[in-house]
Design brief:
This protein is an alpha/beta fold and 382 residues long. 47% of the residues lie in helices and 15% in strands. Strands 4-3-2-1-5-6-7 form a 7-stranded parallel sheet, with helices on both faces. Helix 6 links the parallel strand 6 and strand 7. Helix 10 packs across helix 15 and helix 14 packs parallel to helix 16. The longest helix has 19 residues. The structure holds NADPH dihydro-nicotinamide-adenine-dinucleotide phosphate and magnesium ion. NADPH dihydro-nicotinamide-adenine-dinucleotide phosphate binds next to helix 1, helix 6 and helix 10.
């Protein structure tokens, strides 16, 4: 029985993680979990999964929740609460499915406590990739990808020697607006942006997919997870989201991983690795039904956010921290209808341009730059 800590239980990845656990109760148990503001769902989950520990975001919610959970569930709150869940003594693996760079502290704490990390929370790797990967190495802890592209690469690489990799090829669906011109993008609404053609996900990542920042964040995530330089990470448009990503080796052999778009597959693989267990979905990949798969080159002018992410990644230091923090606040402002769709890339570019990069930043540098960038975007949007 594998005991799990789960951050972000009420989110899209969190609820799908619980669905995997629900289908394999002999294999997994969630002993500690965290939620944000959705305390009704959190209470329901607590009654179903009976964790020993539940963390909620605010003290007010803590007061509301603590008499509505099973007797065996201790309730905690705030950033301290996230740390307690991440380092819960019984758990062997942390599934980090929280949203945003708030996941950084708990990830580092879990690494120091020797937990295996199943990481969905890409913002943590973007904002402080060198610190997270160095800590994982120092504590001999595995970072297992949950993001479908990175899980695909991880599966394609199984047992291969890293020096034999020529390049990583990430696939991109193109998001909600893949067929619109830049001119047409000026007028798009929040409701249109939230309507992703292939995947059902949380609001922030759905917007990130529409701006193509998601692919940019994933390029940086791949750089850190697989230790591959940016010039050997490529992105190809693939609108069906059937090939989840590929690895080309030095002999030009290319390995791809395929499947229907179902996040429970990569989530489950991170939990069972190096084994596999039966899947839950009745839906199987049927290539003869699909008939054709399409691929096209990415246009960096059309998808400006992805180009900004490559640039920030190549410069390194605190640039990716700025990129991530600016994007988090810009996307939240777009969702609140205080910033236009193309305004997102414009304010991120401003934040990157004015930033004086710090190379080899410490955790304190990263926290300071993250806060300063958020304040800059907030004042710019206002
Ligand atoms: P959601 O918005 O659906 O869920 C986020 C979770 O984090 C929720 O449980 C939310 O709580 C919680 N949360 C948000 N902010 C805070 C905070 N400040 N403190 C504590 N908890 C907080 O996001 P997703 O599940 O879509 O994404 C989670 C991560 O996984 C992201 O990094 C995303 O990029 C990544 N990812 C997601 C994929 C997907 O298919 N959804 C695919 C690949 C990666 P509550 O809702 O209760 O407020
Ligand atoms: Mg992805």
């Amino acid at each position: 029985m594998k005991l799990i800590s789960l951050l972000g239980a009420t989110g899209s990845i969190g609820t799908q993680t619980l669905d995997v656990v629900r289908h394999h109760r002999q294999e997994f148990k969630v002993v500690a979990m965290s939620t944000g503001r959705n305390i009704d769902l959190a209470c329901e989950q607590a009654h179903e999964f009976k964790p020993k520990l539940l963390s909620v975001q605010s003290k007010d919610d803590y007061e509301k929740v603590r008499h509505h959970v099973p007797a065996e569930t201790k309730v905690v709150y705030g950033e301290e609460g996230l740390l307690e869940v991440a380092t819960y003594p019984d758990s062997v693996i942390l599934v980090n499915a929280v949203l945003g760079s708030v996941g950084l502290g708990p990830t580092l704490a879990a690494i120091e406590a020797g937990k295996t990390i199943a990481i969905a929370n890409k913002e943590t790797l973007v904002t402080a990739g060198h610190i997270v990967t160095e800590a994982a190495k120092a504590h001999q802890v595995s970072l297992l990808p949950v993001d479908s592209e990175h899980s695909a690469i991880f599966q394609a690489l199984n047992g291969e020697n890293k020096r034999e990799i020529e390049k990583l090829i990430l696939t991109a669906s193109g998001g909600s607006f893949r067929d619109l011109s830049r001119d047409e993008l000026k007028e798009v609404t929040v409701e249109q942006a939230l309507n992703h053609p292939n995947w059902s996900m949380g609001a922030k990542i759905t917007i990130d997919s529409a701006t193509m920042m998601n692919k940019g964040l994933e390029v940086i995530e791949a750089h850190w997870l697989f230790d591959i330089p940016y010039e050997r990470i490529e992105v190809v448009l693939h609108k069906e989201s059937i090939i989840h990503s590929m690895v080309e080796f030095v002999d030009h052999s290319v390995m791809a991983q395929l499947g229907t778009p179902d996040m429970r597959v990569p989530i489950q693989y991170a939990l069972t690795y190096p084994k596999r267990l039966a899947g839950q979905s009745d839906e199987r990949l049927n290539l003869s039904e699909i008939g054709k798969l399409h691929f096209a080159q990415m246009d960096p002018k059309r998808f400006r956010c992805m180009a900004l992410a490559y640039e920030a990644g190549r410069i390194g230091g605190t640039m990716p921290t700025v990129l991530n923090a600016a994007n988090e606040v810009a996307v939240a402002s777009f969702l609140d209808k205080r910033l236009s769709f193309l305004g997102i890339e414009a304010v991120i570019e401003q934040a990157l341009e004015r930033h004086h990069v710090i190379s080899g930043p410490t955790l304190e540098d990263i926290k300071a730059v993250d806060e300063e960038t958020r304040a800059f975007i907030r004042s710019t949007v206002n």
